[in-house]
Structures are given as C-alpha cells and as structure tokens.
Amino acid sequence: GENVEQHPSTLSVQEGDSAVIKCTYSDSASNYFPWYKQELGKRPQLIIDIRSNVGEKKDQRIAVTLNKTAKHFSLHITETQPEDSAVYFCAASERTGRRALTFGSGTRLQVQP
Amino acid sequence: EPEVTQTPSHQVTQMGQEVILRCVPISNHLYFYWYRQILGQKVEFLVSFYNNEISEKSEIFDDQFSVERPDGSNFTLKIRSTKLEDSAMYFCASSSGPIMNTEAFFGQGTRLTVV
Fold first, then answer.
1. Cα dihedral B29, B78, B85, A6 in deg (nearest 10)
2. Rounded CA gap, A10 and B85, in Å?
3. Cα dist. B52→A20, B59, B68 in Å?
4. Contacts of A103 in chain B (CB under 8 A)
C-alpha cells in the first residue's frame, strides 16, 4: 500500500519568512495530493490540493508543487503569519478513488511573531 | 456551511466495553470514512464506505470494528470490546464523490479514552 513520509516534523520560522514542508510517497498510482491544516484540538481542514496532471498550484500565500517522477510534493507558505501556526499533514490518494487518504506524519509549524 | 457532525465529543469507557461513535455526514455526500489519530501521531485510515458497503479497510480495522449506516443520515463506528490502545481521536469524514475528485470534509472528532 501507499506510504507517505513527511519532513520536517517541526518547523519554526519568524513571521514574514517562508516555510516549506516536503512529502514523498511510494505508490506511483497515487494521483491526488491534498494538504490539511489542523489547529490544536480541531478537525483537519483542507487548505490546498494538487492532482497529478498539474505540477504546481497556488492560492494566495500557499503553493504546492508536485514532482511525479521523483514522487515528492511540497507545501510552500510565504509571508507567514502567527495564525499559520498549526500542524500540517500531507496526504496521497490513488487513482481509482476507492481508497481513502494516506497521511504523512505531520509537521508542527510555529510562526514566531 | 454544511458540516460533518460527530457525537459524543468525548467518550470514556472501560476496557472490554462496547462503544458506538456516531457521525452525521453532509447530507448529499455519498462516500464516508473513519480515521483515527492517536495523540501526537498521524491521522490513520480505518475504513471507507460507499453504496451501503465497505469499500476498503486498513489493517487496523479488524473484527472488533464494524460500521453501519442505519438510516439515511447516520454513519456509526462500533468497537466491540475496547482495548487501551483504542484510545484516540476518531474522525468521521465524508465526500460527495471519490476522494481524488472531491474534498473530504472532516468532523470535529470524538475523543475516546479507554481506562
């Protein structure tokens, strides 16, 4: 089955700096890669996703890049703000859509004011 | 905005007891999921459900677990004989289509504590 590795496990940046979180996946059949943000004690919420026919997607300060050949994808947050502090999970889902998501281990992002 | 709702928010149970966690998915959604998250760890897939049957289940979802959609609105997860290691946050999720095509919306979770 799919295995998703995520790095780093913790990331501390100064407000206004950029943050990058990286994930690799094992199943070449995976073709959908969402990112979830989870604030303390709350539900995971989708912030951005990318499908394998696209190499990059951007939504305001958040962008995701995908390299299918290398089987890795990354989340980029620019101009970080304290409210970006949370745990971020990457995930992957394979082609048929019957399978649910396989999550990475999470990155705790701390944005220092 | 429509939401997935879960009850109870916190359940404490004795080891060996049965628990039922309840979820009300978003009303026009057709695909339903249960995940769990042990404190400080990743979110793990348990089971997916579509067209009144299990689509896929993980190795965690053994004979102690079952799911049911008893009526048109509820989706339940039953753990027959709870163990200490079942203590976790359990999230229900739903989507209107296959997860590769549509967003999965998560409920707020049920924190299960087995003592």
1. -10
2. 25
3. 40, 21, 8
4. 42-45
Amino acid at A27: D
Give the pLDDT confidence of B7-41 residue by residue, as tens digits: 999 999 999 999 999 999 999 999 999 999 998 88
State how far residue B50 is from chain A, nearest Cα, in angstroms.
Answer: 9
Q: List the one residue out of B40, B46, B44, B41 whose CA is nearest residue B75.
A: B46
Dist. CA A61–CA B89, nearest whole Å: 30
pLDDT digits (tens, 9 = 90+) for A57-100: 999 999 999 999 999 999 999 999 999 999 999 999 876 555 67
Nearest to A105 by CA among B34, B99, B41, B51: B41
Extract the tokens encoding B2: 């429509």
User: Which residues from B are below 8 Å from A102, CB to CB?
Assistant: 45
> Which residues lie below 8 Å from residue B67, measured CB to CB, with a gap of 6+?
B32, B34, B47, B49, B54, B75, B76, B77, B78
Pair of tokens at residue A21: 């979180």
Q: CB contacts < 8 Å between A and B, how many?
A: 66
Contact B77, B65 (CB under 8 A): yes
- Is-cis flag, bond preceding A44, omega within 30? no
Residue B86 is encoded by which pair of tokens?
């079942």
Q: Tens digit of pLDDT for each residue in B30-74?
A: 999 999 999 888 899 999 999 999 998 999 999 999 999 988 789
Identify the band that residue B99 occupies on the pLDDT scale cut at 50, 70 and 90. Answer: confident
